[in-house]
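anyone seen this seq b4? input:
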Amino acid sequence: MEENFEEKNEELKNEVVENEATVVDEKGFVVEHDTMDSPQKEEVKPACENKCGRVHWIVEGLLAAAVIALFILHFAGGKKPAAVVQKPAEKGNGEVVYINIDSINANYELVKILTDSIDAEKQKQAVVFQNRQKALEQKASNFEKNYSSGSLNAQQAQYAQQSLQEESLRLQNDYSQAVESLEARYQAALSQIADSLMAAADRVNASYNASYIFTYQTGGQLLYADPAHDITQEVLDELNKSFKKKK
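predicted toks r here
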């Protein structure tokens, strides 16, 4: 009798342990079972919940960077040091002349065309990325609400998280490519303008035979420039004349 009683008692203990055990399904989700006799109720939680915490990381981690602000400010750096166009020493007579770059930038037709084109593309891309970022933030907010309310099962929650991560990575990659493309256009424009300026300065200098041609810019290192050595207008006329011929 005592042995039978002990065996039954042991079986009851095993049943209690089994009922309280935590079950993990084949997808790695934790399934908690209600031990009551009423119909079973399952609460499914992502297995990474304890490590990842609340889903705010989706917004705070992946979207924290101010994409559009960086995009707009990327090209807002300071002015570059004035360039120096040096003529071969054997051709010069020792004279020094200069070109006012502020005037060239303001009146050279090619500068305006290239600048307007790049600025227009920059503003266009800024709007595109701003809209994409807002859409992604809205999706992340909707996911958080649905998850918190329990309207998503484990599979749906996992799929939504993965989808948001992939979309965020696409946004970051597309942004990087857009910045690189604009940077390449910007550098190409600078190179084109510099080449045309050097060629025009060389043609104008044929009548001066100066040894050095400096570029002067407001706020630059040159504190004073003698107006008698200013060849800006002649170079500007040469630039625009050459540009009109090529149009």
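Residues 50 and 198 are 64 Å apart (CA to CA). The longest strand covers residues 96-100. kinda curious what u guys think
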